[in-house]
Design goal:
The chain contains 13 helices and 19 strands. The chain is α/β, with parallel strands linked by helices. It folds into two domains: 2-351, 3-Layer(aba) Sandwich (Rossmann fold); 358-447, GMP Synthetase, Chain A, domain 3 (2-Layer Sandwich). The strands form four sheets. The chain has an eleven-stranded mixed beta sheet with strand order 4-3-5-6-7-8-9-13-12-11-10, with helices on both faces. The N and C termini lie far apart (56 Å). The model has no long low-confidence stretch (mean pLDDT 86).
Length: 450
Amino acid sequence: MWREVYSRLYFHVLYPLSEIRVPRAGKSRRILRLLEKTQYWPAERLERFQLLALRRLLWHAYVNCPYYRHCFDEAGFHPEQLVSVEDLEALPTIDKEVLREHREEMAAANLRHRRRLSNTGGSTGKPVQFYIHSQLEKAWAAASAYRGYAWYGFRRGMPMVYFWSSPIDMKKPVNWKVRLHRKLAREYFLDAFRLDEQRMAELTALLKRLPAPFLKGYPSAIYHYALHLEARGVRPPALQAIFTTGETLLPLHRQKIEQVFAVPVADFYGQRETNALFFQCPVSGLYHVNSESVVAEVLPVDGAQDNCGELLITDLRNLAQPFIRYRTGDLVVPAPEPCPCRRPLPVFEKIVGRKNETILLRNGRLLIPTLFPHFFKDIVAVKQFQVHCVEGRLLEVRIVPAGRWSRAVARKIQQSLQPIAGQGVEIRVKKVKHIDPLPSGKTQYVSQVQ
């Protein structure tokens, strides 16, 4: 009862008051109310809403961004030609290398005083800097996220524990305004980069102190926390739901997390670069696209099956540096049918993983990122794994054992993977004590593909 009362007090009184110091607060509150309506609009109305936002973005990019004006002219495309989102296919794609080389030319000349620098998480190498329209971009991102949380019963002001981090984020100073905001919002942050006994104990104490909290974090970190509780026979804290993000949610992770905590596990896809935010539907488990903020396309990948392709994003809300047909490097599978829930938002069947974690072997076989998680999910002797590919001819499988390791298990893994890899590929299984995370704090399961 008190939790609901405080949530309403926070959303209707405390959060609006923060607009005095944080102007985006009022905007995100208004946008959230809009998104709560648009998710139930007829599909045709939602498509018109998206097309109008796309048309405005393309005109803005053509008039104010030298890079895009040149690209449009080279492609023989003018914004007034836009009739449907499919017309975007006439334009070239961009990627991280384009961002590095052409950031200033991509930035909008009319928003120089209303932008700030942000950066990618660096999970694929060196972080890339880009501009965001700080007030508007943050407002849409926050509203889209909280709409998804609400599908699982969350409301602003309810306790949320964030179990994640990266050295990139930790370098940012936390001033008194941020601390006050977090206290009033009942947001709690614990660094998941250091997964030791002390950190696990701190997380358990925090979760048990809070009344029915929600937990959000990297799936690998929450998976290790679940293993920690199970191994020590510790009764897990009572949670409302668990939100995973930042990494691909592997089947063995979901299986263990649901088994230990016995609450819904909702995965969602997000990016630092764009406003893309795909939330798992509580009805179907499909991933809903926040089409009010982005246009999502799928670029076919040679050799991939099940209509799997690379995700392209056009961000409709970042005017400071438009992202038009941005190659995310992530592989997705579109859903063949609409979601059975009442929401007309587009859906993806699954988020497969990073394209740079797709292995092309010398014998011509293509191993997609989800292959190894499905392979290892029922092998109880494996706590964690990482596959290292060398020149398309060697797969070194690094295993952190779960306590039942033996040479026979290693031999079985090797023999089972051999027919999948095919002839001319050596399989080498190696036992390791731990697998280090990336600088972003995430875990990479297919590494250093050469």
